[in-house]
Amino acid sequence: MNQPRSVLQKEHVAVTFGTPVSTYLWPDSDAVNAALASLILQKETADRGLTRSNVGGWHSQTDLFLWDADCVRTLKDRVASCALDMTRLVTTGEGQRKINLQMDCWANVSRRGHYNSVHDHAGTTWSGVYYVSGGKPDNDDPLNGKLELLDPRIGVNVFGGEEGLFGGRYFVEPLPGLMVIFPSWLKHMVHPFSGSGERISISFNVRVQFSATDDIARYSPTKADIG
Ligand SMILES: [Fe+2]
Q1: What gap in Å lies between CA 120 and CA 182, rounded to an integer?
Q2: What is the pLDDT of residue 227?
Q3: What does pTM read for this prediction?
Q4: Which residue from 18, 29, 19 is spatially nearest to 130, judged by alpha carbons?
Q5: 34 partner at 20 to 30 Å CA-CA among 83, 168, 178, 203?
Q6: How much distance in Å is there from the Cα of 11 to the middle of ligand 1?
Q7: Class of 20-89+98-151+159-221 in CATH
Q8: How far away, in angstroms, is 120 Cα from ligand 1 center?
Q9: How far is the CA of 119 from the centre of ligand 1 (A)?
Q10: β-strand partners of 127
């Protein structure tokens, strides 16, 4: 039997309902990461922190962007920069408008056995993480301390057919200096950390609002208690 004639080109196929996820490794981050790690560990000794999705570990209050330190200001600029880029990249650029960002941020310190259960960040637009320190992970667990973003398409794992045809799993290696941003409705988790030392990360939420003026970004930290 002859092969059926091929007719479809790439332009005939729409990838609908895609989920934008950015990963960006900030260069020259050693000094700022060292300062952030020192500040976060110092804060940990003075505050019991919160319990949210974290199972074990320390979750700071959500006011990290209000901590008075140069490294925090650098981080805040980095989050704003990536959140603005993502917003512009996934929305139409028609007309001029102002993008307002409201940002909340908190630190996470995980030690051996600590992890984050499956959750999302309701009530905001973008969520993400910045990795400060990876600790000293054991080498015998390929999922060690990794962030996993879960496929949001209902049924894809039930009706997907051959493995890998539609679905797949998306893992993020916690590299110091790496910033990840994804839609806040996207469910995610963090696999248990096994290793010595601390795995330190910083999570954030960004709420985006548009207004019809010039395209100038403005952002402000808030104290919303989410995440
Ligand atoms: Fe999260």
Answers
A1: 11
A2: 34
A3: 0.88
A4: 29
A5: 83
A6: 35
A7: mainly beta
A8: 6
A9: 6
A10: 182, 205
Could you tell me the distance, in angstroms and rounded to a whole number, from the CA of residue 27 to the centre of ligand 1?
24
Distance 118 CA to ligand 1 centre (A): 8
The helices-and-strands tally (H runs, E runs) of the chain is 3, 14
Q: Using the mean position of ligand 1's atoms as its centre, give its distance from the Cα of residue 180 in Å.
A: 11
pLDDT over 90 percentage in the chain: 64
Instruction: Tell me, in angstroms, the distance from the centre of ligand 1 to residue 151's CA.
Output: 15
Residue holding tokens 């993502």?
A: 86
Contact 204, 40 (CB under 8 A): no
What's phi and psi for 137, nearest 5 deg? -70, 145
Ligand 1 geometric centre to CA of 48 (Å): 19
- In 57-122, DSSP assigns E strands to 58-59, 98-110, 115-119
Task: Using the mean position of ligand 1's atoms as its centre, give its distance from the Cα of residue 224 in Å.
Answer: 15
Give the list of residues 6+ apart from residue 80 with CB closer than 8 angstroms, or none: 101, 103, 206, 217, 219
- pLDDT tens, 126-175? 999 999 999 999 988 899 999 999 999 887 777 656 666 777 789 999 99
CA 126 from chain centre, in angstroms, equals: 8
Distance between Cα 188 and ligand 1 center (Å): 6
Q: How remote is the CA of residue 2 from the centroid of ligand 1, in Å?
A: 52
